[in-house]
């Protein structure tokens, strides 16, 4: 590990959180050893416009087969910053999520909820010169996940960012304001209390597109004391 040993653990979840049962099985229990990163880890990978298709950022369109996907359309936008507060341009952002009924397009998801034939639930884009990004999608539904009795995951979208190098790779989750399930979710609660607000998007009427989609802002900081917490 080259970066984990430098993390601010007052902001990020521990590797093992007993309330989040699968972390007990997959989280490391050994002390980490710092390894100085090689040049390749500090300078890459690099992604250009060729890796992004014209509809990759629009999850309301990139999975259409015979009509519009079902559910509440939303716009998610924001900026990506480095540890010094500077925008991070041309960085790849990938997202994946459940559909409006709380079902993923994945063979291991056997939740008794319908799949939407017109919703893939995955997309990607590059940030612009000011580190800004924008996705159109459907607000994901909550779903049961078996961690404990009557366990339900809050509405959320998964984010993966590479930043300028492997050392700035970030995988996290974006939640929605006012979700009543947040206090009951061990994954969200595994993040230290002082940093949880960084995982919750902000509703914005300015971002909302009249007659089409509600808008949310989710800014992301890759490293430093204000870093967006990693996914537990």
UniProtKB/TrEMBL annotation:
UniProt domain Intradiol ring-cleavage dioxygenases: residue ranges: 76-104
GO terms of molecular function: ferric iron binding; protocatechuate 3,4-dioxygenase activity
InterPro entries with a match to the protein in the record: Intradiol_dOase_C (IPR000627), Intradiol_dOase_core (IPR015889), Intradiol_RC_Dioxygenase (IPR050770), PCDO_beta_N (IPR024756), Protocat_dOase_b (IPR012785)
One of the GO BP terms on file: 3,4-dihydroxybenzoate catabolic process
Keyword terms, alphabetized: Dioxygenase, Oxidoreductase
UniProt superkingdom: Bacteria
Record PROSITE patterns: INTRADIOL_DIOXYGENAS
Protein family (similarity comment): Belongs to the intradiol ring-cleavage dioxygenase family.
Name under which the protein is recorded: Protocatechuate 3,4-dioxygenase beta subunit
Organism: Oceanimonas baumannii
